Design the sequence.
């Protein structure tokens, strides 16, 4: 019987330019620094994905895999924007400057450029759009599919694809200046309204509760799903949800120890 890795190595013996086989081989390397020999040369996961793009620049799976290597997860700390880490199936906070670049065909690609390539090949990825928007500076633009996009336009595209995306609403709100608005669904939205809309779709996002609190005046209230919330009640709800989530994370460990 063959393991998955052995199957991909066998495929590369028959066709050394098989981009998908190179990508799939990279997915079998899960430990940091782990390598696999191919025709006498040791390859890391990153090098396998780069090989895939060398033979097929339109290999979207390889671009998506390499996106991880442009993000320095060890350097990531608490910050308002969110990045979807598909390897962990969770949303990670983004810190500007916490990422590096890769080189494909002599061209440097940061996470923004990797996401632009991914969206060029498949423009339907909601999390890719709002992640790209979170990585762009307010006055920056990036080319995707022959069109220049601003950060706000990336978030709005995510919402066009999925108007119920709480993280797209949250990140749109975070990208707005204090008196700035965004036009969506026939009306203008300010920062506070974006956070409230995010919570209407998902009231378990602690970050949106915190952002909403920071966008409100002390005497201000906001309506969420038919209920009026004061600034203090939003703060307390955010703390309650955060505590609940910590308990859920710890409980499986306690059960295993017991």
Sequence:
């Amino acid at each position: 019987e063959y393991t998955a890795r052995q199957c991909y190595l066998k495929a590369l013996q028959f066709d050394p330019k098989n981009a998908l086989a190179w990508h799939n081989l990279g997915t079998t390397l899960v430990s940091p620094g782990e390598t696999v020999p191919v025709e006498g040369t040791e390859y890391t996961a990153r090098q396998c994905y780069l090989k895939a793009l060398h033979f097929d620049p339109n290999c979207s799976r390889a671009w998506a895999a390499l996106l991880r290597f442009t993000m320095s997860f060890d350097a990531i700390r608490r910050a308002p924007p969110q990045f979807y880490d598909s390897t962990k199936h969770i949303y990670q906070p983004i810190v500007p400057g916490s990422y590096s670049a890769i080189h494909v065909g002599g061209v440097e690609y940061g996470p923004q450029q990797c996401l632009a390539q991914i969206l060029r090949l498949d423009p339907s990825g909601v999390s890719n759009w709002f992640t790209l928007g979170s990585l762009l500076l307010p006055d920056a633009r990036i080319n995707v599919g022959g069109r220049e996009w601003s950060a706000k336009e990336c978030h709005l595209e995510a919402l066009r694809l999925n108007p119920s995306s709480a993280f797209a609403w949250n990140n749109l709100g975070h990208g707005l200046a204090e008196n700035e608005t965004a036009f969506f669904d026939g009306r203008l939205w300010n920062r506070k309204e974006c956070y409230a809309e995010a919570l209407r779709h998902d009231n378990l996002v602690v970050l949106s509760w915190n952002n909403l609190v920071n966008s409100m005046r002390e005497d201000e209230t906001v309506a969420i799903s038919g209920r009026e919330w004061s600034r203090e009640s939003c703060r307390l709800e955010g703390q309650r949800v955060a505590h609940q989530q910590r308990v859920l994370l710890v409980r499986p460990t306690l059960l295993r120890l017991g």
